[in-house]
Amino acid sequence: MQPLRSVVPRNIINHFRKTFATSAFSSENKKKVCIVGAGPAGFYAAQHLIKNLPNCYVDIVEKLPVPFGLVRFGVAPDHPEVKNVINTFTKTAENPQVRFLGNLTLGFDFTVQDLRDRYHAVILSYGAEKDRKLNIPNEYPSNVLSAREFVAWYNGLPGTEQYKPNLNARTVAIIGQGNVAVDVARILLSPIDVLAKTDITRFALQTLSESKVENVYLIGRRGPLQAAFTIKELREMTKLPGVNILWRGEDFVGINEELPNLQRPRKRLTELMLSSLSKQQQHEVGKKSFLPIFLRSPQHIDGSNNLVLSINNLVGHSAVATSVTETLETDLIMRSIGYKSICLDKSLNFDEKQGLVNNVGGRVLKKQLTGSDNSIDDIEDKFEKGLYVSGWLATGPTGVILTTMNNSFSVAHTVCEDFKTGAISSSATKPGLDDLLGNKTVVTWDGWNRIDKAEIEAGKIHQKPREKIVNVKEMLTLVS
Fold this sequence. Notes:
6-stranded parallel β-sheet
């Protein structure tokens, strides 16, 4: 979805430009860095830069009028403690060396080359906004929903308010066993009065209150020892009111014997699964069911919209499909097999298959290498000068927020080192994006604070932390 464009009153534009002109950004010989993407990867990179790079000033450019990326639109509404990282990001944004510029889109308002011409260094951190498909026969939008879109819908990502998942289904099969898949299962099975106290959107709450879902399968291609969800997510499922967890005992044959060989995090998770298995009862009347299944891969969807699964063997840590299949009767299928970044600028050395920008340690590789060897020290020949990438755009969609933090700190450290060694020169004055803004509606941090205040006030009416505004036009009206 492209952000809305409108003409800002001239007095606001003049005030905006005056603020820029009198800020430290106008001073000569400052190290100007632009970060594209105001999610965790972008904020963590900015945090490290202003702390460790003298005379550094950072523009964080975001396509939406609001910051925080997946912390706002990806973290489950019943996990408010995870969103506390927003407090740290706010301190970074309020630092006088940082500007937030919302409602500006790479590939629409500016190009990568525009940024490289106007900043000493550029870090691309715009994340992953698509999801991987199953690529099986009969996988259509009408019968296979995207877990990513479902999460964005209940979290209020602008543009998803018209998304209308049909939850008249009694049985749902989620393909994938990561934390996102477990989040979706928990939201589908949670009591509505619990969700009503969160910042979930009103339209999602209404749809979920009318849901007919009783059984949720969680399907993984490998075994219990390779499950991608965390112990925290599973423990929450074991404590969910009115829900039974029903495991398949045959999936755990020989698992007890493996416990002594496991590292502590994996051992604790496996022990919790075995404990839950030992306590499970047959389906209790009046209770919903959460049903994890291992060693199964989707093969195709049959004419009755049932899911045909191949039964897998585990060879090492890899799942190998056998010729044996089983059919799972289901009313709705969701895929949750990973997010995927997209290429927003044709100049980038982008790997379409992996969905990431080709890089080494955050330095973006040239499309055509000009060096005579393969040494990563050959910066001029191998890398795009002053161009970096961090977060999922650099690594693919792996890990949690802590993983992203470590990656972004590492990339920002590389930027600092490149300034220190002279690989990036700050001798020339760089103008930043100001000369490209024109009459575009740009949301500053003050603008975000207005949106934030309005959401919190609206939430009080319904005894919620906030009621998210999901319409971009409404956001921009509040700002201007």
